């Protein structure tokens, strides 16, 4: 919860950085899902 409070206290531009990091981390998983759909 402390991490969430820290993120909320960041300036608005930092949110874009957080979103980019989250998307970047999810990219491999999204690619796997897309590959599964293409195989079917």
UniProtKB/TrEMBL annotation:
The keyword Transmembrane helix applies. The chain crosses the membrane at residues 13-34. Keywords: Membrane, Transmembrane, Transmembrane helix. This is Uncharacterized protein. It comes from marine sediment metagenome.
């Amino acid at each position: 919860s402390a991490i969430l409070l820290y993120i909320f206290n960041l300036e608005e531009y930092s949110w874009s950085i957080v979103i980019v990091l989250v998307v970047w981390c999810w990219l491999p998983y999204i690619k796997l899902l897309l590959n599964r759909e293409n195989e079917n």
